[in-house]
Amino acid sequence: MGIVVVAGAGVFGAGWAWLAAGVLVAGSVGALCRVVLRERRADSVGGMASTIRPIALGVIWRGDALLVFEGRDELKGETFYRPLGGGIEFGEASQDALRREFVEELAAEVTVGERVGVLENVYTWRGRRGHEIAFMFDAEFADPALYARDEFKILDDDATARWVDFADFRDGTKILYPRGLTELLSAEQ
C-alpha cells in the first residue's frame, strides 16, 4: 500500500486562490480519492457583489443635437443624460446588442456605423457603485421619420429620450455620461 499526496495552487485574477488537495491511497482492493476546493478569499476583488458590465451605446445626431435619455439621481440631486443602448449579452457582438437594445427600448431599427470609442465608466448611482465598459457607436435610425420626433418614451423604463443640443454638454450646462463622452465627441467635430 502506498500514499501519494498531490497539492496544487493557482491564482486566477486578482485575489482568486483555489487550493486542490488529493490524497490517493492505493491498496490491493481499490483506490480512494478525495479532492477539497477552498472558496476564494474574502479579501479578493472577486468577492465583491459588483461586476463590470459591458454595454453598447448609440450616438445618433439630429443636426447639432444628440439623442439621449434623461436620468435623475435623487441622492445626488443630479439630472444627467446618456445615449441609448444597454447591456451586451454573453456571446453577443456589441453592434448586435445595440441593434437589439433600440428595438427593445424604442421599437426602432438602427443602422450601426463606426465605433467612436470605448469608455470605462466607474460611477455611483442612487448610492450604488457601478462599473461599465461602454462601446460607443455612430448610429442612424433606419426610418428617417423618427428624426422628426422630439421625444421618445422608452418602452422598458420610465425614462424619456430627447434631442439635446450638444453645446449644453460642452459648456457644462448639462451632464453627459459616460464620463469622457463629451470630450470624445468634441474631438470628432
Description of the structure:
Strands 5, 6, 7, 11, 12 and 13 form a 6-stranded mixed sheet that branches. This protein is globular. The protein has helices at residues 94-106, 166-170, 181-188; strands at 2-11, 17-26, 31-37, 53-59, 61-62, 65-73, 78-83, 85-87, 110-125, 128-141, 151-153, 160-165, 175-176. Helices cover 14% and strands 50% of the residues. A hairpin with a 2-residue loop joins strand 5 (61-62) and strand 6 (65-73). The chain is mainly beta and 189 residues long. The longest helix is centred in the middle third of the chain and has 13 residues, at 94-106.
Radius of gyration: 24 Å
Please state the average pLDDT score. Answer: 79
Shape: globular
End-to-end Cα distance, whole Å, is 78 Å
Question: What order do the SSEs take from the amino end to the carboxyl end, as H and E?
Answer: EEEEEEEEHEEEEHEH
How many strands, which pairing sense, and closed or not: the largest β-sheet? Answer: 6 strands, mixed
Count of individual helical segments: 3
Proportion of residues in extended strands: over 45%
- Total number of beta strands: 13
